[in-house]
Amino acid sequence: MTPFTTLTAIAAPLPLANVDTDKIIPARFLKTIKRSGLGTHLFDALRYHADGSEKPEFVLNENKYRSAEILVAGENFGCGSSREHAPWALLDFGIRCVIAPSFADIFHGNCFKNGILPIVLPAEICEQLMADARLGANARITVDLATQTITRPDGTTIRFEVDAFRKHCLLNGLDDIGLTLEHAPAIDAFEARRNAEQKWQPNIRQV
């Protein structure tokens, strides 16, 4: 998993509440177990007409937001089903950080497991960042996970809270497998010791 340390990027405003995981990535695109290729279908119903052409009014179809890496959204982002494809689609598009007043619990956890930083801030602060995001490509926002701060385009900083363990995992690029591999020497030593202490014999039945 790619570590998350400091991100200075364009932020896209998405002032919608209760954006569920089916809006993030519709169910018909969940047949794959690959994490790549899903970004094309991120917010599919919001981004495209029925004929597949882009809806020019949707924020991520505007040229200034096509390379956005931060999303400023409304409350209860990621509600609905628990599909892990939702953060996969965001990440494949290029989104590394989502800022909102609140998140659905499972989606919030899935973000951390996939290298996305979800930041919870009061609604009035999110509105300020939404206004910053509307300024477009010249108004970049910096997110520093180590110091737990967001720097706005005018230079002011906002502090955010994050669970210490999840912060450690993101800073070091550790998913569940990576966390297990951190203990590989201890696991190998245990296996070697067990094999030495217990000479396993095949179970052969006599007929």
Structure description:
The structure is a single chain. With 207 residues, this protein is α/β, with parallel strands linked by helices. It has a single domain (6-174), classed as Aconitase, domain 4, CATH 3.20.19. The protein has 8 helices and 8 strands. The strands form 2 sheets. Strands 1-6-7-8 form a 4-stranded antiparallel beta sheet. The chain has a 4-stranded parallel beta sheet with strand order 2-3-4-5.
The CATH topology annotation reads as: Aconitase, domain 4
| Low-confidence blocks of residues | none
- Average predicted confidence as pLDDT: 91
Largest sheet: 4 strands, antiparallel
Helicity level:
25-40%
So, CATH architecture?
Alpha-Beta Barrel
Using only C-alpha atoms, the radius of gyration works out to 21 Å
What's the SSE pattern?
Answer: EEHHEHEHEHEEEHHH
**Total number of beta strands:** 8
Shape: globular
Query: What is the first-to-last residue Cα distance?
Result: 53 Å
CATH superfamily: Aconitase, domain 4
> What is the CATH level 1 assignment?
Alpha Beta
Structural class based on helices, strands and sheet pairing: alpha/beta
What is the count of helical runs?
8
User: In what order do the strands lie side by side in the largest sheet?
Assistant: 1-6-7-8
Per-chain topology:
Blueprint: E1 6-9, E2 11-14, H1 21-24, H2 44-47, E3 70-73, H3 85-93, E4 97-100, H4 105-113, E5 117-120, H5 123-133, E6 141-144, E7 149-151, E8 157-159, H6 164-172, H7 176-181, H8 184-197
Defining key terms:
207 residues; alpha/beta; Aconitase, domain 4; four-stranded antiparallel sheet; four-stranded parallel sheet; 32% helix; 14% strand; globular
